[in-house]
Amino acid sequence: MTKSYREIVEDARAAVTTTTPDNVKARLDQGEQLVLIDVREPDEWGQGIVPGAHTVPRGVLEGQVDNQVPRDATVVLYCGGGGRSALAARNLKEMGFDNVESMDGGFRAWADAGYPVQNR
To answer: What is the pTM of this model?
Structure first.
């Protein structure tokens, strides 16, 4: 059966934990240790990033985090709108990351909420 990109993303969202910018901001404000990973492409980082986020393009994510991020870390992935991060979260979950989340709405939702943005 052939699936569209949208269907693949919806399957990924159903398979992983999703969170919101409001939830991530509140958890950061409470001091929770989150590994934030921005999986957008380098040309997108010029818009800014969530403060403290690691910038790892989606295409090299699995190779970059393998053996560099502890499997028990709480990892929150985000992209521009939430599709790529859902796909990335599903892959990390398959790699044994038990506490991985995708931020719905991505960087756009974070910035639209008026939350801080770090220049990159």
So the answer is: 0.94
